[in-house]
Amino acid sequence: MATHLYKAFSNSETVSVTQWYNRTRTSISSYANEVDITDSLDELKEADVYIIAVSDDSLAQLSVDLPFTNRFVVHTSGSVAMHDINKKNRD
Prior knowledge:
Elements: H1 2-10, E1 19-21, E2 36-38, E3 50-52, H2 56-65, E4 73-75
Parallel strand pairs: 1-2, 3-4
């Protein structure tokens, strides 16, 4: 899902991808010449929106691990409620 979103956003004239996070940098390393990539949550840059595109089982924990609060965080799962995003980013 994340790869499809990145490709769609990179073709858009109105959307700018600031950074791409993945737990393993090597799996997105082929995009390093196009966008800033990181495998460290502590290195996440400020953005207007953060999109979580992970497995349903990983979503809740990743939202807990995000090192910030009061940011606009969304997810791509069709089977997980929006309330599964940690409340620190739902105010």
